[in-house]
Amino acid sequence: MIDFKQAIFDRENAFLSRYACKSADTKGRSRPIEPCPMRTEFVRDRDRIIHCKAFRRLKHKTQVFISPEGDHYRTRLTHTLEVAQIARSAARALRLNEDLTEAIALGHDLGHTPFGHAGEMVLNGLIEGGFKHNEQSLRVVDLLENDGEGLNLTHEVRDPILNHKNSGKPCTLEGMVVQFADRCAYINHDIEDAITAGVLSPDDLPDKCVKVLGDTKSKRINSMIVDLVTTSYDQPWVKQSDEFRTATTDLREFLFDAVYFNPIAKGEEKKTKRMIELLFRYYMQHSDELPEFHKSMLSTTPLDRVVGDYIASFTDRYAVRKIEEIYVPKGFL
Q1: pLDDT tens-digit profile of 251-267?
Q2: Structure confidence by residue, pLDDT tens digits, 226-240
Q3: 264/196 Cα distance (integer angstroms)
Q4: 62 φ, ψ to 5°?
């Protein structure tokens, strides 16, 4: 019988960088499972993430623009797919583990709230101990999926999901690639969405950033990946050159002023924040209306955290539906 998985291990040992995380070297899961004869543990993690409910809900969660008029604005799901594409391209060129990289990328935003970072900000101020989407993403894969069973992912996927933010320090180079890809993706697709919305013009972008990174989305993404690979190839790190890091940081800071805090882009944000707050207050007072799974958590978890778990799982449209059910009067004969 052909040992398919050993063939994968042999191929990785022959091709991957000495600094890559080999599939055979995983630290494993908190709960051991029966090995698969064909798939490595990182491939299984990727598959578990793709098939989970939290992943499917990302298609109806805001990236930046709330309730946009048009079908071509990014959602949290399309952002995730773009991160995965950029991360795999970089990992392949760096001879890192693409399967591990993809699994991390697909799982990194599973804990995001409805209405993007606006929902996150509200829950962060309402829950004892705060709320951060990266911590919630880990909570989703460890506990909230499968009615308390979680996805039981490997350590090498769990750690970078928690540490994918710029301030984090992922435990593998593959995690560092996803950290870069996340930033590369949102900077460039948020520019494109802002131009589509009329919030930005291509001429508004800082000249010094355009000169280094490029004057179109595709040029910027390509140049950023090439710079990352050139700077990091066969090294025990993943990082941009000083010139590209400065240009990327400056472009990101420009977006905060021009887009993320722009009254046009954020015109509906006050309403969505109020909606999240109303829902939170309601379920704090009516915990008997929580789903059975969330009620079962109350014996070990504070109510505010359980309510936060429930609301964070909402899609934008489900949050609107719940507001209508709870607060909008029903017609009657």
Answers
A1: 999 999 898 887 776 77
A2: 999 999 999 999 999
A3: 12
A4: -65, 140
Q: How far is CA 317 from CA 187, 278, 283, 314, 321, in A?
A: 25, 15, 18, 8, 6
Distance CA(108)–CA(129), nearest Å, equals 21
Is the confidence at residue 201, as pLDDT, over 90? Answer: yes
Phi, psi for 75 (deg, rounded to 5)? -110, 180
The pair of structure tokens assigned to 153 is: 């992912």
- Residue for token digits 């990327």? 248
Cα-to-chain-centroid distance, residue 306: 21
Report field, pTM of the whole predicted structure over 0.90: yes
Contact partners, residue 148, CB within 8 Å, separation at least 6: 293, 296, 297
Helix (H) or strand (E) holding 250: helix 242-255
The average pLDDT across 11-28 equals: 97
The Cα–Cα gap between 180 and 192 comes to 19
Q: Return the percent helix, strand and coil in the chain, to nearest 5.
A: 65, 0, 35
Q: Categorize the per-residue pLDDT at 286 as very low, low, confident or very high, splitting at 50, 70 and 90.
A: very high
